[in-house]
Amino acid sequence: MSRKAFQRLSQDDRRRDLIEATLVCIAQHGLHGATVRRIADQAGVTPGLVRHHFGSKEEMIRNAYAYLVGQLTTEASERARQARGAADAQLRQFLVANMTAPNLSEEKVSLWATFVGRVRYEADFATIHREGYREFLHLLEALIEPVLIDHGLPHDTATCRRHAIALNGLIDGLWVEGSLNSGLYGQALLPDLLLDASERLLGLPANTLSRSH
Amino acid sequence: MSRKAFQRLSQDDRRRDLIEATLVCIAQHGLHGATVRRIADQAGVTPGLVRHHFGSKEEMIRNAYAYLVGQLTTEASERARQARGAADAQLRQFLVANMTAPNLSEEKVSLWATFVGRVRYEADFATIHREGYREFLHLLEALIEPVLIDHGLPHDTATCRRHAIALNGLIDGLWVEGSLNSGLYGQALLPDLLLDASERLLGLPANTLSRSH
DNA sequence: CGAGGAGTTATTCGATTGTATAACAGGCAG
DNA sequence: CTGCCTGTTATACAATCGAATAACTCCTCG
Predict the structure, then answer these.
(1) Residue A40 to residue A32: CA distance in whole angstroms
(2) Domains along chain A with CATH numbers
(3) Over the stretch A162-213, which tens digit does the pLDDT of each residue have?
(4) CA atoms of A161 and B114, how far apart (whole Å)
């Protein structure tokens, strides 16, 4: 019986392949069903590779969590950055990015929830969550402040932070429920609803976010 | 070697004991670590009992999920019902109930997230989630409408529903992030922030929710 | 008080898991 | 073209899992 033919990949490529295979397995079968054998199978390699590149299954999964969080915030901040217009337009794009594909995805929400469920009891997950949360909050604060300034609203640090916390909560909640109940909503409802709600939360004139750009 | 002395419980009591033991195990060790043996150990019985009362481990876990969802919505709606004042006060209590113990709990959020992570890929979990979501949304709508009426605001069905979706998202998001990052916030911050944000979302005069009752 | 049955325990089994180790082979240095 | 390093495969192993079965005991009912 001959050995399986295989391809040699760069360390980065192989690691990324394994991480993405891990995410697929966790989404479809849960953390309990994401076995080393299944991950390897999904990636088209043999189980030994997981250990070779990540040392242990737990380390493999930690890397997958960090990878997911990075994907989510990078996508949103990138979309905001590309809106090279007024502050309104940047905030708008950031918000919309979280209510549309690829971030609005049942698979991504499932993964996020699965990991978040472990944050309380596993220190490494808590670290990844905390850093991701802080980064997201800072991005949001930085986007909110110039908008408040443009409209002549109070924009002290405490106010910005408070708005960011509320807005972040609203984004998270709509993102989760919107993805899981995507069948119930039209595709345009969620972005529209978030923009509308954000204007109210920040005290902006109606349609400043909805109409910008 | 003598057999372990044991106590005979009513079916309801034993099932509840097992369900709560299951939730403890899932919270602490995740779905993958909630083994029949560990659950039985947590409940102070032997593994066979799980099968005897629930048929299989999966059925056991489904019951635990439904139990958790029921706990959360019952607590919030009960607190709202007990505020026998104006509509403002009832909505206020409903909101506050979700930002304070026992609902605001790292353990409960961890459990909720763990289960939600499976909603996409397991039909039974999807059913439990969907029913819970609809019930929560209806409760919220029913609480919002009279408040809008009292303040002379538009209160057609579509408007109420839209407000309920946004408010539900805000509650969920703050609930999750607030519980997981409870160390970062003072105990009074979250309820206060949610009430304030809810007033803005619904277009109510400032302090109508914060000051009622 | 003393059977009978349902609730509970004890024990076992095949399957699957994460990990360890040795054998193999692809592709770059010389 | 040819070693040789290391990415990769193949195989094995102890531990643990969910489930099944049989034995036992608490409690109810007559």
Answers:
(1) 15
(2) 10-55 (1.10.10.60), 61-211 (1.10.357.10)
(3) 999 999 999 999 999 999 987 777 778 999 999 999 999 999 999 999 875 5
(4) 29
| Whether A42 contacts A20, CB under 8 Å | no
Across the interface, which of B120, B171, B196 has its CB nearest the CB of A110?
A: B120
Nearest chain B residue to A108, by CA: B117
List bases in chain C with any atom under 7 Å of a protein Cβ. 7-11, 16-22, 24-27
Contact of B199 with A195, CB cutoff 8 Å = no
User: Residue B47 contacts by C-beta under 8 Å, 6 or more apart in sequence?
Assistant: B36, B37, B39, B40
- Cβ neighbours around B130 below 10 Å, total: 15
Q: What is the pLDDT of residues B151-197, one digit of tens each?
A: 999 999 999 999 999 999 999 999 999 999 877 777 789 999 999 99
Residue A135 three-state SS: helix
- A110 in contact with B at a CB cutoff of 8 Å? yes
